[in-house]
Structure formats: structure tokens, C-alpha cells
């Protein structure tokens, strides 16, 4: 199959920052792309060959879009799976497959999947409705504190909440959900596994994630994780087992907990380019977006090793600012060594909205971490 | 000045591969761009915010285009300078300046500029018309062999020819030109200097260029150049002197000869992102396109050091093939370590046309050179 400067068409569902960064790679290879997103000025609007405004959860919109491409992928899980299944039946190559997506989209199903495949994960209880949690609390089958997760459409901290008292339950939506035991973990780790249509598999190094205390968003991603080599190896093996179980095509980001006694528990997965892999644009021989593209097109996968240490800082909207975005002190961070800002192109900021990220690369990871701290404390996303 | 996700407008004259790679950076920063190019499907057409089809040598077209931007730059020297001068007078920031461009556009003027500034360059003679060369040959003021260069619009080997006999002169255009003594050189080297509107100056490492024997196009660019440290230092200093003399803003690529007795002679310069700097996308902390952008916007310049060794192989159309392009054996080169193909997106190939390039990065530059050789011998641009 000719992909380069040819008539081949790649479809991408979702036109956000992940799609935008994927488009850098399709442009590099001169691969024709069609993108669908509901947003009039989605970050992907520019740099794709054709942009279609459409509802990603609407069967007809997704189906009509998919019929006009040779390979279909997505940058967000919240898409109409029935349409993907229909397209797959009708011969459109959909990667990752609707089957994979279905299991991952629903967090309750995802947890059951781990149990079925003997993949270590935090103990949990499944509820058809949030209101049923009260009964389980009363008969003490679950205890405070615990983590509440809505089964559907959890994203960027929405749909996840730590519950310490009855009152914390009040403002939760009454939906299908799970409750998870709070794991007293040493570290949150992630490994991105990539699997091509040809069955070739590569894993990226283990990264270490530092979360924002209140917003439940990643603040720093550090590659390589500053952990014991044995623990890193264990995390890699667990990630590979998860990947093997899903038999996905393309990227699978596996988020894990390192417990106090160095066990690895799978937290959740994402079948797409992932925030924990953004550092790879500057640090890796092959970045995650190019790797995903290679994988779904059946091209040879590239090297996932790092040229240098990399740290990623998320740029999120400051609390107390909503409206037309301004990036304060950009010039100050650009003076620092090995600093690359990525501005996603969202015109409006709001508290904790992901507006961009900054990558800090350095041969010395501790030096990179120092600079990352400076970046974090200097740049402000305001309005 | 706010550049990021703001109303600021950057204008780029020329929509070829250099502009295309510059647009990766404007997208990364979410900077609004307008591009003008005569080609209906120029590589820049996608990924800029506004595309204008227009003749770059036409005063009105360039003037009208320039009036609608805050900062104007170009990716090709062959643009209407009078229009740039008018725009500059009327307050549009034009980088590099029309004054710089004027001296560089005309190779005869360029050579005289070096003489005026005591910058070492190959001995040359200037002719108003090619036909006048015959007289100088007869009265032996010049001798075979020599290099003929048209004063205007030399690009990609067009406008340059080695002259060994009278008959070599036959098919040359009768235009303003220079003849240059053939320099028996050890190496062709290049140094890219960057100078910001704030006067900050950085230089990239010295690279070594290997030319195609007949097509007079670069085949390999090797960074760092495998030469004596003293010679490299000398090349850096000469490049800085050239940059200091031009007082340009943005990138200045300085091509030089290393003579048999290790003198450095300036061959020619280009005031824009340059083929000899493409390796920097994968190998450098800050690639040349991002650096140019930082420079013309007055942002702090980034580090020009390399993460790893880098080699660039030009992808040019095979002899004997003209028409709809096909890239043969792409998958084979993508199997090799640290190989990144860049496909410019030109739909039609013809002999020696620049269709793309491939970067090979490796911690060991000799290993990279081996792989580059494989790449060169494997991939074929055909129709």
C-alpha cells in the first residue's frame, strides 16, 4: 500500500490536541487526512486535508465520515462504537478495534477485564447507580475513604472523585460507577505499549507521574521514572500483559500504581496517544504519534528509546481565569535550557483546562526536573 | 507582544518545503500564519491559517500580501525586494531585511560584499554577460577549468556549472554572471548562524556536506562534521564574521570550503532555513525552524547543541522518472534505527527534484553514516 503523497485516506475522529500532534506526523509523511470534531475551531482544523464538523457520538455522522476513509483511528474514546462496528463489518480498517474500545470505554467493564485476565488492579465494587453506594456503606461492604469513578466518559479528572464522607457523595451524578479502594501508592507510573497491524510490539520506558493535589491532573511526567530497575521491569511486564490481553492495534497507555511494597497495580488504560507520552516528541527516537501512525498503517515500528531525559509539564488554565487565553511569562521559560512550549490553540481558557504542555529535555534528568519546576512556577495561563 | 493564540499575524513568502517545516513550529506555538506561493498545491497550503496564491516576484502581489501581516519573512530568496522595501518603509517588520536580501540575491554583489568585508572567498571575476567570458579566456585573464555562476536566481544547482572547455560555455544563458577559480577543497562545510531582533546570536555546529557528483546537490549532511577541532573553530569564526557583516535577522546559512591547507573560504550564504540544517529537527535541542521563528519574533533563542549525531540524506527524483511520484522501499528504510523520512508533498517527481529528505540520528555518528548509506541505496523516488 502506498501511503506517501498517495490517494490513501486516513480518518481521525476527534480534533483536539492529540489529533493536532498526530497531524504533525501525517504532514511529515504527506499522508492525506480527514478529521471530524464537533468544535468549529478545533486544534486539528488546520493541518488536516479535510475537516468535517460533526458529533462524535452520533451514529450517522461517524458512519458517513468513516465510509470516506481507508483507515480510521480516533484521538478520544468517546465516539459512537456502533458506527465503528458497522464500518469495520463493511471493510473499513478501524484501529484500535471497536471491540477493544468497548471494553475500555466503560471503566466497570475495564476492571472486570483485568480480573478475567489475572491482571493486578485495585479492589473495586461495581454499581448500576451511584445511589446504591449508600447501601454498601451501611452494610459496611465498602468503607471510607474510597475512589468513585463513573463507568462512562471519565476524562481529565471529570468522572473521578475521592470520597471521604457521606456529604462527598451528594453532588455525584446517579450513574453506573465503580468504587475503588484507596491505594497508598509510592508512585503512579505509566508505560505506553504500541502494537502494529503486523503484530510488532514495542514499549516506551516507564514514566513517573506527579499529579496536581486537587485537580487530579498530571503535573509532571518524568522519563525515565526515577525508580528501582526491578520495579521498572515489573511495570513493563504488566503493561505487556495488558497489551497482550487487549490485542489492540496502535498505542495503549497503561497507567499503574507502585504500591508501598512495590507491587504493580493497573489503574486504567487509554488506547491512543497519551499525555504521559508527550515528552517523546523531544526526547525519543520515535515519538508516540509517529509510532501510532506506523502501527495502524502496518509500517515498521521505530525505536522507543530516549535521546535524552524528558519531563513534561501540563499547561492548564489558572483558577480564577475564564475567557480569551493569555500565556504569561512565556519568554522567561523560553530562556531556560531545553524548554519547548506546545500551545494547543484553544482560544478560551478556564480553570484546569488543558491548554498546552511544556517539554524539558536534558541529558541529566535531575537537572531537567529542576528546570521543570521553574517552568511550572513561572508560566501562567490566564485571561 | 502576544504571539501565542493571539491576533498576531506572521506572513511567509514561499510555500515550499522550508515553509512547510517552519509551519510545524508556528502550529506548535499556535501562531497565526499567512502564506503566499504561486503553486496551487504548494506544500504549505495545508497547516497555514491563510493561503494566498500569488507571484512572489510581482510587486503588487507581495505588497498586498505584506500589508496584512505584522511580521513578514520568506523561505526563498527570489521574491520582489522593492515590495519588501516599501513594506518596511510603511512599518511592516520584514526579516531578514530587504537590504540583506538585496546583497545576497545577486551572487556578484555577494562576492563583492565579502571582498569589502575582508571575508575569505574564492577568487572570481564578474561579467555583465556570459559572452564576455570568451574575451577574458582569449587574453588569459581567466583559465579553464572554472565555475560559472549566474548572478541571479541560482537555486538547487540551476545557475551553477563547472566549465572545462569552450563547448561547456555553449548552452549557458547570456546573463550577468561570475566565474570562480576551482578550489581544490578537502570538505564543503556549513554553519548556520541565527541572530534575533534583540541582537542575540547563536551558531549551530559545523556540518559537513557531501555533494552528488553530477547534480550539484547535497547528498549527505553530517553533523557534527568529522574534521579537526581547530578547523571547526575557524569555520565557526568565519561564519560569525559573515553574520556580523550582514547584520541579518533570522537564520543565515554560511557555506564554506575547507581548502587543502585548511583555509576556510566562504562559498555562499542563504538568509533562511537551509537544507544543511534539516538534521536539526531530530538531532538538536532547538531545530533551525523554531530558532528562525524565535529570532524574527524577538523571543529568546534556544540551545543549538545536538542531542545525538545527525545525518541528512536528500530524497531527489531518480533520473529517468517524471510524473506522479512513488516512494519505493520506504518500509525497508523505516526498519532501520533512528530513521525519519520527511516527504515534502510534491505530487510530481522529475530527475533530481528535491522531493524530501531522510534524517538518521545515532549517538555514534559513524554508525549513523553507515545507516545513511543504506538509506541512500535503498529508497528510490520514482513514478
UniProtKB/TrEMBL annotation, chains A, B:
Which EC number applies?
A: 6.3.4.18
Q: Which Pfam families match?
A: ATP-grasp, PurK_C, RS_preATP-grasp-like
Q: Which UniProt keywords apply?
A: ATP-binding, Decarboxylase, Ligase, Lyase, Nucleotide-binding, Purine biosynthesis
Q: Which residues bind ATP?
A: 107, 149, 180-183, 188, 267-268
| Single GO molecular function | metal ion binding
Tell me which residues make up the ATP-grasp domain: 111-297
InterPro entries found in the cross-reference section: ATP-grasp, ATP-grasp_carboxylate-amine, ATP_grasp_subdomain_1, PreATP-grasp_dom_sf, PurK, PurK_C, PurT/PurK_preATP-grasp, Rudment_hybrid_motif
Zinc found in the keyword field: no
Subunit and partners: Homodimer.
* Role this protein plays: Catalyzes the ATP-dependent conversion of 5-aminoimidazole ribonucleotide (AIR) and HCO(3)(-) to N5-carboxyaminoimidazole ribonucleotide (N5-CAIR).
Q: What is this protein called?
A: N5-carboxyaminoimidazole ribonucleotide synthase
Q: Which organism is it from?
A: Sinomicrobium pectinilyticum
> Upper lineage ranks?
Bacteria, Pseudomonadati, Bacteroidota, Flavobacteriia, Flavobacteriales
